[in-house]
Design goal:
Helix content: 40-55%
Strand content: 5-15%
Distance between the termini: 65 Å
CATH superfamily of one domain: Pyruvate-ferredoxin oxidoreductase, PFOR, domain III
Oligomer: single chain
Largest sheet: 6 strands, mixed
Length: about 625
Amino acid sequence: MLVTEDLERFPHRDENGVEIRHRRDYDQVLKELRAIKGPTAVVYDQQCAAEKRRERKRGIQETPSQRVYINPAVCEGCGDCAAKSNCLSVAPLETEYGRKTQIHQSSCNLDYSCIEGDCPAFMTIDLGEGTKPVRRAAAAPLGEDEVPEPSRQLPDDATFRALLVGIGGTGVVTVDAILVTAALLEGRYAIHLDQTGLAQKGGAVVSNLLLSREPISRANKLGNGEADLALSFDLLATIAPDNLKRFSKESTAVVANTAGISPAAVITDSAARMPPLDELRKRLALFTDADRSYFGDAEAATERLLGNSVTGNVFLVGAAYQQGLLPLQAPFIEQALRANGVAVEDNIQAFRYGRLSVADPERFGRAAGFADPEAPTAAAAVDAARERLERWAPKSGPELDRLLANAPRGGSLDRLLPGRVADLLLYQGTAIAERYLGFVAEIGQAEEARLPGHFAVREEAARYGFKLLAVKDEYEVARLWLQDPIWDQIANDYDGPINRHILLHPPTLRRMGWKRKIRFGAWSRPMFRLLYAARRLRGTALDIFGATRHRRLERALFDWYREFLYRAIDRLDAESAPLVVEAAKLPDSIRGYEGVKERTIATAKTRAKQLLDELDEQSLGSRVA
């Protein structure tokens, strides 16, 4: 059987006993072949997406005009799109309403398989002829002599050994080639080894680099403890055991990107989290010279300074150079960047700003617009909630003030509640907002009675009681697509004409056998307004969407959660508090739409039973003791 991305390439398909299917059927094909006794074979016909991206950057292939975005307000962060696409440009996004998913535009391979995810949060943008992304660079270009030359940390006559570590598709091998080219231009000898194996985009990539004034008569792979420099484009890949053994606490300096590039397990599993940055740095410090090392968010820096993050690796080369850790001269590195011929000016500026981040951190911070983020305040939350209502439901403003005046207080509730109350007023009106606040107040009273001064349970109840009440049914998805600013924001991100389309697979049509998503353009906005206006029918006999099994299951979740949480709070004390807080957070694992959500509900309810059993065992153990 042959699986392909383009059926049109095989006009005589299904001949000679070879069945030809589209790649979207790949999982089904494997299941079918698994059931066949005897040998079977699958040929997967598709060019590597990362290779396509490289050819597009070099003008060898035409770049498609379509871009994909995800509306975070609609997104549930379930990871189904990442599972369908197996693409690490589908990245986690932390928001006030929990973890969502975003498309990392700078690294996107334009493969489009992510839109197969069972989710109504996808939007495609078709760029008109000549339309370009708006570059919002924060800084003026740096001149060639604006950064002073560094002092060298390495003797010029010694053999220099570096290990470059990152992930596939982000330019690790390209940076290695640029440094080799710079060395040759300077008259040095260079040998190197790129270890890419079968790494797909996101797989670990390691480059070994050796430079010298004299011919190098040795293997091109670094041995244990040999690295003078660890150029870490991805910290998680860098701390792999096979890399750590090549470092030395006495002689290896680190220049590392602190931007968290999530592995596939984190993207597809909503419960998984990246290891904290501090843990990664501590692990690396056990094997390297921390006093000579540099850590910086190269992705954020180049995004702010240059309007995109694709030059982050070259930014780190600049930082390593200015630290005195590269035995090369800046003019030759810049000459090598010009010889590479790709985004030349951006790469040169990234190199220079990487140097500036070491030479003059204050000037660099001002240029990049970096500032310590201010924690959101309760007053700011109220102002944002009022502004939202002022635009979409002006008559509800006084109602918001009345509800918040009587809302529970304590912990972070003053910040958590305003936006959620405003959303519930837009969702269905006063009754559901009052039900929500009453629930949070009841949980808070029960928590205070069992463990005075403890606020974590009611805070989580505020987060997840809202989530389970504001079910993202057809009416709510229409509201979010109408009221979330992403529709207008994306138009401002491009200079030139664009066509926007929302991709939906309406459950009603799905149950009638419709198998594919439908593109809804600007013409559909009045339809969304009509659907949102019909929200008053939600839960009544006239609710044509509410009678399905999925909707009934979703709308029963709030009462289930309330009963479950009361049972957990009955066991609350200082010892059991972590388990009770985990119980309050349990709805965070309920994500997705339709079948995806149904599976996560079953998993959450199984975990709920386990938590109650653990709380009972803990309570019994305390009494026995």
